[in-house]
Amino acid sequence: MQIFGTTTRGETVHAIPLRAGDLTLTLLTYGARIQDLRLAGIDHGLTVGSDDLADYEGAMLYHGAIVGPVANRITTARVRLDGMMYELERNNGQAHLHSGSEGSHAQVWDVIETTAASATLSLDMPDGFAGLPGRRRVTAQFTLSAPATLTLTLTATSDGTTLMNFANHSYWNLDGSGTWQGHSLRIAADHYLPIDDAICPTGDVADVTGTGMDLRHGPVLDAQTPPLDHNFCLSDGEEPLRDVLWLTGQGGVRMVMATTLPGMQVFDGRPDHDALAIEAQHWPDAPNHTHFPQIKLPAGATYQQITRWSFAR
Question: Which family does it belong to (predicted)?
Fold first, then answer.
């Protein structure tokens, strides 16, 4: 573990290198984020990162980070919980995005334990953090295993009933090029959530059949691919860990993503087209749509999600 930089608040940020099998990973304590992930025999990183902390406090604020406690958008930045209305920060037009400007992505996490192939980080969130009730603690365990697998286990508790929906927000480009065009993307989802002009779910759950959102057969992405900033509905609730997404670069590098969660948000990064943000999570804006899988965490209960990335070439 070594010093990576100092935040504008004067906090020290560390870099944590991990290695196992064919993978090497560098984590940052700022946002518990994936800064760099490399596969043996490939001369470029598989995620978009930076060596400058200022980038992560600026335009790359979500790159590789764990966003939460509520990832994605909350329409009109208002939620009702146990009869109380909570007004949240409007940091994306009229919406609340990724728990506001000071969410978990913008915090320096504590290092609990490290080994050559794993690291466990935690973050304590006081009552009122991100506008929501409960004193909360979240723990992120990153583990590498041979031949080339990264597993992220997120666990959280709260002493008060609250909302919980964390996500890793890495941007992927398996070719190390300036564009995701030429990648093939397959998602095991029969439905998706249509969005309005503010990129918030309309409340409809639409069949992908006959639409540009039908990625069940792994089409190659190009400039004619419809803009992507949508949740793909994997299930109606949490499931045992299962493979749900397959991404292949033009150079033959392959990624298989598995998760226990019911949704997969895919954002194509337009207009830059440089990488794909692929975020396993619950469906966005769930508190405002009672027919969506819900993200309410009762006091004293334990939240857990597992996401796994496996690579080959």
Answer: Belongs to the aldose epimerase family.
Q: Are the CB atoms for 157 and 141 separated by under 8 Å?
A: no
CB of 268 closer than 8 Å to CB of 229: yes
Task: Write out pLDDT tens, residues 196-237.
Answer: 999 999 999 999 999 999 999 999 999 889 999 999 999 999
Q: How far is CA 66 from CA 77, 98, 186, 227, in A?
A: 20, 9, 23, 24
48 three-class SS: coil
Q: Map residue 143 onto helix, strand or coil.
A: strand
pTM of structure: 0.96
- Whose tokens are 């969130």? That residue is 125
Q: How far does Cα 180 stand from its chain's mean position?
A: 18
Confidence at 51, pLDDT banded by 50, 70, 90:
very high
Give residue 109's identity as a one-letter amino acid code.
W
Give me 250's structure tokens. 């033009």
Question: In the block, which residue shows the tokens 């909302």?
Answer: 163
Average pLDDT over residues 81-87: 96
Angstrom distances, CA of residue 272 to CA of 178, 180, 223, 267, 269 = 8, 10, 11, 11, 6
Tell me the domain boundaries of the chain: 2-312
Question: Among 300, 295, 287, which residue's Cα sits nearest to residue 134?
Answer: 300
Cα 139 to Cα 288: distance, rounded to the nearest angstrom: 27
Nearest Cα residue to 292 out of 283, 300, 279, 305: 283
